[in-house]
Design goal:
The protein has 3 domains: 137 residues, Cytochrome c-like domain (Cytochrome Bc1 Complex, Chain D, domain 2, Orthogonal Bundle); 83 residues; 158 residues, Immunoglobulin-like (Sandwich), CATH 2.60.40. 49% of the residues lie in helices and 12% in strands. It contains 13 helices and 10 strands. The N and C termini lie far apart (91 Å). The structure holds copper (II) ion.
């Protein structure tokens, strides 16, 4: 009877395993599609331009060998001087495509095969709108595919549950046998608790010693308010760190010390007013001080800036940044989303006199010790402008202007010496997962001396060149 049960279970287990493997095999048949969707859809679509060109019929306009090389590493191909690659790169404003060194030839070819099959399928957009019956074949395929993925997930979940039940069954059998030998689980568990807290705390110390170097704290902040910010952060870290270490040690030590041993009875101790008063009042005071100091700092950074502030606008789009300088008048021209287009990506109102001398750049230059009023605008979705070295971060929301004041205090050259890294550059990153190529949203930030800044500014063309008397703009 027991043998029969065991056989039944093993068979069931094998059947489930088999179905998983065959499910995975079926999956490899659509590998090209999977790879394409995982790696390419953030920048490409079959029938329309996204970041990269539409891929429809790309197998007709390019050789397969060329495509394999291009997809593996387009920059390498461009640098090798391949005329088609160079031309293509230029046509797309030198926006680089990601390299896919990890893909094998077979995998890349499976992607090309998929693009081929999609090119031949009738375009989705060709379907006449409003007629629900006319769902194109691509749509049908699409849903078939997601269906099969969903089924696979369900299958995997069921399998996992089966495996867990199976393993637990065996474990509990072993437990039954062991139980007769009277293993004292309470004692083992209490020792494990001690080991856990010792290993855990040692790992925390190790983590701080090894990876603490990687934090931005080492080189200090590069803005005026950043000092205040770092200081607050450190105080909070130390206070919570001390509390953390004490409470964790106590928690696990008591778990060890007061394990059930069958002799002792728990003490009934419902409450202690004095104790509760202390542990409420002390944290309340500490937190109030921390929060109020934070509020004051925050208010300073976000309320109206000094009059000497320079106006700079940071503009976020999927997937990159622009910045606009206010020019000689220190007034940013109006903008209107209706004007956003190829020639005027920021949608600046070019009829507004304040906009004539504005300057649009894709590399941010700041003057050291010069207060800046930075305003933020988004074209498409929510982004987050993150300048880690200046301890500055602000959400960038379509239709909702946000702003921030800060004063950079260390030039790029000074920071390079400080860090002993001649390649160091400040950076602006996007800190909201805003889409497939979110990771590419970076802009170089350079903090110049006054002279360097003026020199750089004088080389930047004004937005509406013809209408500004002294363009390129010399002063701001
Ligand atoms: Cu973003």
């Amino acid at each position: 009877m027991k043998i029969f049960k065991l056989l039944l279970r093993t068979t069931l287990f094998l059947v489930l395993m088999f179905s998983l493997v065959s499910g995975l095999l079926a999956q490899s048949a659509v590998e090209g599609k999977t790879l394409y969707q995982a790696n390419c859809t953030s920048c490409h679509a079959i029938n329309e331009k996204v970041v990269g060109p539409a891929l429809k019929d790309v197998h007709k306009r390019r050789e397969e060998a060329w495509l394999v090389k291009w997809i593996r590493n387009s920059q390498k191909l461009i640098q090798s001087g391949d005329p088609v690659a160079v031309q293509l790169y230029k046509e797309n404003n030198e926006s680089p495509m990601t390299a896919f060194e990890q893909l094998s030839d077979v995998q890349i070819k499976s992607i090309i095969t998929y693009i081929k099959s999609e090119s031949e399928a009738p375009a989705k957009t060709a379907v006449i709108a409003g007629t629900t019956a006319a769902v194109g074949p691509t749509d049908a395929k699409e849903s078939e595919f997601t269906d099969s993925i969903n089924w696979l997930l369900v299958l995997i979940s069921v399998l996992l549950i089966a495996v867990i039940i199976y393993v637990f069954g065996i474990l509990s059998k072993i437990g039954d046998i062991e139980g007769k030998k009277t293993i004292n689980w309470n004692s083992i568990n209490s020792k494990l608790m001690l080991i856990f807290v010792v290993v855990g705390l040692l790992a925390t110390v190790w983590e701080f010693m090894v990876h603490g170097k990687l934090t931005y704290f080492n080189e200090g902040s590069a803005s005026v308010h950043g000092e205040e910010y770092d200081n607050m952060f450190m105080i909070t870290l130390v206070i919570t760190g001390v509390v953390f270490i004490i409470t964790q040690i106590l928690l696990f030590w008591y778990g060890f010390k007061y394990k059930a041993d069958g002799k002792r009875k728990a003490l009934y101790y419902p409450d202690n007013h004095k104790l509760e008063l202390w542990w409420t009042i002390i944290p309340a005071i500490v937190l109030t001080v921390l929060v109020i100091r934070g509020l004051i700092t925050w208010t300073n950074m976000t309320t109206k800036p000094e009059t000497s502030s320079r106006n700079i606008e940071v503009f976020a789009y999927q997937f990159g940044w622009n910045a606009r300088y206010a020019g000689t008048d220190n007034k940013l021209g109006r903008h209107n989303f209706r004007e956003v287009g190829k020639v005027n990506p920021l949608g600046v109102d070019t009829n507004d006199a304040n906009a004539y001398d504005d300057i649009v750049v894709s590399e941010l230059h700041l003057e050291v010790n010069q207060p800046i009023e930075m305003s933020f605008r988004a074209k498409d979705v929510i982004h987050s402008a993150y300048f880690p070295h200046f301890r500055t971060q602000m959400n960038v929301v379509p239709g909702l202007p946000t702003r921030f004041n800060f004063t950079p205090s260390v030039t790029t050259a000074e920071m390079r010496t400080k860090k002993n890294d001649s390649n160091f550059d400040y950076i602006l990153l996007c800190n909201k997962i805003c889409g497939g190529a979110h990771y590419r949203m970076k802009m170089k930030v350079i903090v110049d001396t006054k002279e360097e800044y003026q020199k750089w500014l004088s080389t930047q063309p004004a937005l509406v060149a013809g209408k500004v008397s002294n363009s390129p703009v010399a002063m701001n």
